[in-house]
Amino acid sequence: MPIDVARYAGDFASLQFLAREEGILELVMANKGRLNAATEAMHRDLALVWRTIDTDDAVRVVVVRGEGSNFSSGGDFDMIDRMIEDEATLIRVWKEASDLVYNLINCSKPVVSAIRGSAVGAGLAIALLADVSIAADNARILDGHTRLGLAAGDHAVIIWPLLCGLAKARYHLLTNKPLSGAEAERIGLIALAVPDAQVLESAFDVARTLAAGSTTAIRWTKHALNNWLRLAGPSFDTSLALEFLGFKLADVREGLAAAREKRPPAFDRDKPE
What we know:
alpha/beta
């Protein structure tokens, strides 16, 4: 049964879809000139597309990547502006951020991420919540939240401690230190680091193996393994709530201005905690 990519393109117009091999859906994030940052439309589509994939009998495996040489730089700055200024946007994006994580965890189809260049914020959530994460050894992996003046929400609390241990999670999430793909593999944050030119083919090699395997065995193993993430659901919900509380404080305005001006942020250290 061929995958109906036209259906996906119609329902999730901010994303690109390819079906070059039977049973393998290629999901591409594309935002030219913005390092594939997630616009409001893309953020919505990334939250909801997993439900459709879950029920599509033609899809056996998903490979997710960014267009060109980068995965995704996270939430688009224009979307963040609207979240700061408009409560309705903030509430909607909070729900989408929660749905993105839980819908990806609960999607029965295995997901392989092919990470090149920058993977930050909401884009990194998809990269690391994938069942098999493959990155270029020179990829740049960065949570990014604390530099922006926000608590690390999105995905970090639900999966970083499980993948790389609490000590490394604390170090990278609190200090906002980036990792290369090679270092991410060394500490267990991703499954495999390969030369940049080999990332997509390596992802497809894994996808072909999964597509050829027992459907029930693979999907039920994924379901059981992801109970570790479901157990961390309350911690994730707290982190997401605290992240979105930060959008109503002054630090995020300074963090966003600093990011746009490519300078270190100057946060107010005298305000009460």
